[in-house]
Q: What sequence folds into this?
């Protein structure tokens, strides 16, 4: 097991290396630079001074080596957008907020999505099922920025129950979490239903029922446990997606998190931050897949790691 | 979604028989599913709207500019109605801030949004399918290399990557298409490889090989038809996701270039910004996106149930 | 296994319920919103500077003024002008002079000034009792240091100060001369002298943007600007001092009790909330902001304006006044097809500005036919109105004469915009529709982010690459003088200079125009004479169709009725303005009242 994990981590290092190369090449090809552009054109001299200030006057390969040299010492450089913070500090400041939002969203999404899926699977093809399906399709097909603005209009402006945005306490969490959770709830409910329906039809369930086990035991020990396996595959990728935030949700609800940086870092040509984010994402994805694979073993005795 | 009860042991081993009845069975099952039919109707209607927005197919023969058919006006004809007019008998979906007919823009927008979504999936298919097939069939070093590429691509954040590509190459129809397919082909590649890995070990492939069938014959004649089912499903379900992604890009200002309308751009630009008063500017394109997603999702679900009732849901995010 | 699963489910359901429970009526907070007019405090309200507020002032703890902004990178003007956080300019450093409501410079840190007879030496007498908030006196040396910092090559507003014509400016910027040789000198601690290479009649107007830097803290002339991001460094000489900077959330300023000068603060706190422009109007309506709009960003989009006009309460809170900004189309007049004057003229007559300002930009703009907007010094709005008047027939004729009858053979165009807000893209689409209808020319619109746009503009001028030939862009005034807005099209430069190095940002060149600007710059103490020359220059600009002006912007702002003060007194034109802090002393001239503003 340990050896397996170590091999995977070694593979990750390789992936990170290649990804940093690709990103470096891609981002330095985008026109413009991290400096502010005035209304008038820059003189050649000014442009040169700015390039030197940001260390962009050297060939790209040399910049890459400099950056790589820093990374070995766990120094990912200073952010251009917030020049008083290193990339690690900036992520360290903003990510906990986004993580908090993402975690709450995950809990709500699973808390509502899974029961909804199970109920509609058990009551397959009844009005409960159709209602749940309709609801989840509804959630699935509407972009979360539309939800966000609708919620602000309804709960803040019309009903005056909640503030329009900010991140100062529990009452500020509700709207963004709900807006953010809508699509995952829908997705989780859909896949849960499909997996449970699948498991309900399986031979071992028929056998279990035939043995005279109570419906409850059948459900928990046989149906749900087996339904978990395909669900892990689908739900795994949800986790890194949600905990890294959404620019839309965070902009609309004024959440000082990481979400916006996925876009503003490119707009501001904040090269150290872009590459920091790309690596963060890659690591999260790798961890997710690793955990997913380990969970397989946990839930499915047929899978063995070799 | 109600899947037919089916006895899987009936799958015939012989190739010709298997092929014909697999797809015929699937079609039968698909058509028996009420929800898939609803989905199919939605998709067909949307496609008709997109294709017959104007008479582009006869206009060149008559030597004139295309005239609107389903649309009432050209998508860029400005100031034919009031600024931000609400829906009325003349303008079914109201008019936008430039006094353009929202209905006509929705109709033309169908063409852009649907074509981007469908073509990006097909393009992803063109990259993902051969790569996956190669990896799954050849195995060994080829597999290793392709899978490492897939690993790397799937570890890149989609939005940021699409964004960098758009900033680097400039916003345009083709670049949106490219950015969207570059980020979706990996899934298709994974799926295809998985299918090939399983299928190449199957008895009927062994059998053909032992009687001396050549590789192309085995790959195209035997494995591919059997591997296609989950891939079709994945592509179908990818369409609504691509429409969504295009909307997100437009929301951030790097999508389709105006005045050409796409639904995502209609919501993302003037729609959201003016939602509090001119509600119709966001409402109608959002409804259209919702319908499209609904249609393709239902068709995708129906296809999945029909093509492989035993299959577990494919990976999606 | 079963237990574990149920436990997980139970936890998540409980979590969801707890969250929902928090949704029970919670007060929309965000500072004490003085919406419900509280009874006035007993006795007069005296703020921390000892200033007695008017009788209807709310208690001191409610003297909090909140407005929205977007978070940027730096905190000081000397670090970066374009990437500076809104709100800290006026709050923090204080400037030599301040513009009044009519933009005329008034004494501030510089109590008085004089200019020598040849117009090349300016002398400023500084306020003697001014200190930084750490107690260090503000002296002429701070000004000298400030200008030395502005004269560094990687400073993004360097071009602006170079317009002051300060002696040895270019040499200091390029490093050929040491900073001590700059023509800005401290005669003594409270006397500042500025020498220029040639007479600069408008120098005093630029001094409104001489925002002093604390030399005793920054020390290094070439500091990249990060010094001010450390809170302990952020000392103030202005009416307000930074209390806290919650990154990503807000800036909080409090009245500076060490402030001495002509603009003492009335409110106790100013809070700058960082918000996406899309949600500001909603936050304002929800009582989380005291003012919205009137800034760089489009806080009040067309739907907000329509809503305001349909609602008498909101309409009463609306303040509208013209901004000195011109949105115009420009061409690459050095490359085909726009090197042909007839083509440019055809474009200028093909666009119906009135439709645009009554359509997508309703309440936000007036039609433009000239570079200088109405009310700007040297403007000639009336005189130039007919040069590019809308005339589709004439436009068609001109295009045909240029060799493109009915647009045949004309290349498909891309109209570029720079970080366009939604309504600006609408305007661009309207232009495209008019070009299609009147000239039968196909145009698509491509929006570029600021960096890409300016990079392309620069490449076009430097290399004449010919792939960035048609764009819609604004220019907003930097200071109120006839020379300012015309400077994007050229400047005082001898004939024969490489065109790609000529002053101005566009691919258009006219030596006569440059000569006129040069000549006007020499005229001292006679603004009417100068403006006459600027009018001649502008006529060349418009007649040669260097640009097709589309509209001049109008500022709209909503300010809650309980905000009162001298800020709301009209200017000499009878306009009530809610100018951005840089162009007014806004935050010092308001207070929170229990009454209603008239």
A:
């Amino acid at each position: 097991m340990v050896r397996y994990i170590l091999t995977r981590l070694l593979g990750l290092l390789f992936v990170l290396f290649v990804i940093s190369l690709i990103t470096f090449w891609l981002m330095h090809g985008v026109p413009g630079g991290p400096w502010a552009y005035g209304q008038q054109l820059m003189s050649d001299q000014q442009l040169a001074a700015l390039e030197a200030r940001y260390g962009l006057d050297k060939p790209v390969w040399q910049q890459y080596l400099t950056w790589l040299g820093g990374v070995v010492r766990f120094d990912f450089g200073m952010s251009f957008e917030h020049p008083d913070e290193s990339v690690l500090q900036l992520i360290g400041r903003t990510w906990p907020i986004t993580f908090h939002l993402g975690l709450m969203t995950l809990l709500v999404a699973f808390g509502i999505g899974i029961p909804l899926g199970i109920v509609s699977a058990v009551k397959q093809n009844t009005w409960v099922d159709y209602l749940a399906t309709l609801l989840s399709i509804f959630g699935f097909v509407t972009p979360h920025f539309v939800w966000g603005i609708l919620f602000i209009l309804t709960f803040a402006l019309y009903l005056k129950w909640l503030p329009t945005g900010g991140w100062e306490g529990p009452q500020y969490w509700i709207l963004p979490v709900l807006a953010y959770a809508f699509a995952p709830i829908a997705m989780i409910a859909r896949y849960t239903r499909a997996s449970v329906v699948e498991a309900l039809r399986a031979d071992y369930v028929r056998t279990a029922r035939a043995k005279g086990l109570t419906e409850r035991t059948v459900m928990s020990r046989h149906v749900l446990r087996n339904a978990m396996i395909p669900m892990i595959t689908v739900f795994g990728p949800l986790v890194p997606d949600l905990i890294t935030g959404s620019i839309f949700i965070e902009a609309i609800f004024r959440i000082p998190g990481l979400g916006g940086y996925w876009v503003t870092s490119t707009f501001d040509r904040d090269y150290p931050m872009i590459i920091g984010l790309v690596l963060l994402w890659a690591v999260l994805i790798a961890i997710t897949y690793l955990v997913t694979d380990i969970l397989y073993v946990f839930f499915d005795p047929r899978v063995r790691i070799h | 979604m109600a899947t037919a009860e089916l006895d899987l042991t009936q799958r015939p081993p012989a190739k010709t028989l298997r092929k014909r009845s697999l797809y015929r069975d699937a079609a039968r099952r698909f058509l028996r599913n009420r929800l898939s039919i609803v989905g199919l109707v939605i998709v067909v209607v949307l496609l008709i709207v997109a294709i017959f927005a104007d008479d582009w197919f006869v206009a060149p023969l008559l030597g004139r500019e295309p005239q609107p058919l389903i649309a009432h006006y050209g998508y860029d004809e400005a100031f034919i109605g009031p600024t931000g007019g609400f829906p009325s008998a003349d303008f079914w979906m109201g008019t936008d801030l430039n006094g353009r007919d929202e209905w006509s823009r929705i109709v033309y927008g169908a063409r852009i949004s649907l074509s981007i979504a469908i073509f990006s999936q097909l393009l992803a298919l063109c990259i993902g399918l051969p790569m996956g097939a190669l990896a799954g069939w050849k195995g060994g070093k080829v597999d290793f290399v392709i899978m490492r590429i897939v690993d790397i691509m799937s570890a890149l954040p989609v939005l940021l990557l699409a964004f960098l590509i758009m900033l680097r190459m400039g916003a345009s129809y083709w670049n949106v298409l490219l950015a969207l397919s570059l980020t979706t082909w990996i899934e298709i590649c994974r799926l295809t490889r998985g299918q090939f890995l399983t299928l190449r070990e199957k008895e009927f492939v062994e059998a053909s090989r032992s009687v001396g069938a050549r590789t192309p014959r085995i790959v195209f004649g035997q494995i591919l038809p059997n591997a296609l089912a989950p891939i079709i499903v994945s592509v179908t379900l990818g369409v609504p996701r691509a429409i969504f992604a295009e909307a997100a890009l437009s929301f951030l200002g790097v999508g389709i270039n105006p005045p050409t309308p796409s639904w995502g751009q209609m919501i993302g630009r003037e729609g959201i910004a003016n939602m509090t008063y001119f509600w119709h500017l966001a409402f109608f394109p959002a409804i259209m996106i919702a319908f499209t997603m609904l249609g393709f999702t239902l068709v995708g679900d129906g296809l999945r149930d029909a093509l492989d009732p035993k299959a577990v849901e494919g990976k999606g995010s | 296994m079963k237990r574990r699963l149920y436990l997980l489910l139970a936890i998540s359901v409980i979590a969801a319920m707890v969250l929902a429970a928090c949704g029970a009526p919670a007060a929309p907070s965000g500072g004490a919103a003085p919406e419900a007019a509280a009874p006035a405090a007993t006795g007069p309200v005296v703020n921390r500077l000892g200033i007695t507020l008017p009788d209807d002032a709310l208690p001191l703890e409610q003297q909090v003024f909140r407005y929205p902004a977007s978070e940027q990178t730096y905190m000081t003007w000397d670090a970066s002008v374009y990437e500076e956080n809104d709100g800290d300019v006026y709050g923090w450093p204080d400037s030599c002079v301040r513009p009044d409501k009519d933009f005329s410079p008034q004494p501030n840190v510089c109590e008085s000034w004089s200019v020598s007879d040849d117009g090349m030496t300016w002398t400023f007498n500084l306020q003697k009792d001014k200190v930084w908030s750490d107690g260090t006196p503000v002296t002429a040396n701070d000004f000298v240091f400030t200008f030395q910092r502005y004269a560094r090559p990687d400073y993004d507003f360097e071009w602006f100060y170079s317009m002051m014509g300060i002696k040895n400016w270019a040499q200091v910027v390029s490093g050929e001369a040491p900073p001590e040789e700059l023509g800005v000198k401290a005669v003594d601690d409270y006397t500042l002298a500025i020498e220029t290479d040639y007479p600069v009649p408008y120098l005093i107007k630029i001094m409104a943007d001489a925002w002093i830097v604390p030399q005793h803290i920054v020390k290094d002339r070439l500091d990249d600007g990060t010094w001010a991001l450390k809170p302990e460094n952020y000392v103030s000489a202005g009416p307000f001092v930074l209390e806290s900077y919650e990154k990503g959330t807000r800036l909080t300023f409090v009245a500076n009790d060490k402030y001495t000068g002509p603009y003492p603060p009335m409110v106790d706190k100013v809070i700058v909330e960082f918000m996406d422009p899309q949600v500001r109007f909603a936050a304002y309506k929800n009582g989380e902001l005291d003012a919205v709009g009137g800034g760089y960003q489009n806080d009040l989009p067309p739907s907000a304006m329509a809503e305001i006009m349909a609602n008498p309460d909101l309409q009463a809170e609306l303040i509208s006044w013209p901004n000195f900004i011109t949105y115009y189309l420009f061409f690459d007049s050095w490359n085909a097809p726009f090197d042909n004057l007839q083509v440019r003229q055809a474009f200028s007559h093909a666009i119906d500005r009135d439709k645009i300002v009554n359509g997508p930009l309703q309440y936000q703009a007036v039609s433009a036919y000239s570079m200088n907007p109405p009310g700007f010094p040297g403007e000639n709005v009336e005189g130039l109105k007919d040069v590019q008047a809308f005339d589709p027939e004439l436009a068609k004729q001109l295009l045909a004469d240029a060799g493109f009858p009915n647009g045949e053979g004309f290349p498909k165009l891309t109209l570029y915009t720079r970080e366009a807000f939604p309504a600006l893209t609408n305007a661009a689409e309207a232009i495209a529709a008019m070009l299609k209808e009147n000239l039968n020319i196909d145009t698509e619109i491509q929006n570029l982010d600021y960096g890409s746009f300016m990079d392309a503009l620069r490449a076009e001028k430097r290399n004449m690459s010919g792939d960035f030939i048609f764009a819609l862009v604004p220019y907003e005034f930097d200071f109120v003088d006839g020379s300012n807005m015309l400077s994007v099209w050229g400047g005082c430069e001898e004939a024969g200079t490489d065109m790609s190095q000529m002053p101005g940002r566009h691919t258009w060149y006219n030596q006569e125009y440059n000569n006129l600007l040069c000549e006007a710059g020499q005229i001292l103490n006679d603004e009417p004479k100068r403006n006459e020359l600027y009018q001649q220059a502008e006529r060349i600009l418009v007649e040669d169709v260097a640009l097709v002006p589309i509209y001049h912007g109008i500022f709209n702002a909503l300010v809650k009725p309980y905000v009162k003060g001298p800020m709301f007194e009209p200017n000499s034109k009878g306009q009530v303005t809610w100018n951005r802090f840089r162009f007014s002393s806004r935050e010092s001239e308001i207070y929170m009242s229990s009454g209603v503003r008239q």
In short: Chain A has a mean pLDDT of 87. Residues 91-263 of chain A form a domain with the MetI-like fold fold (CATH 1.10.3720.10). Residues 87-122 of chain A form the longest helix (36 residues).
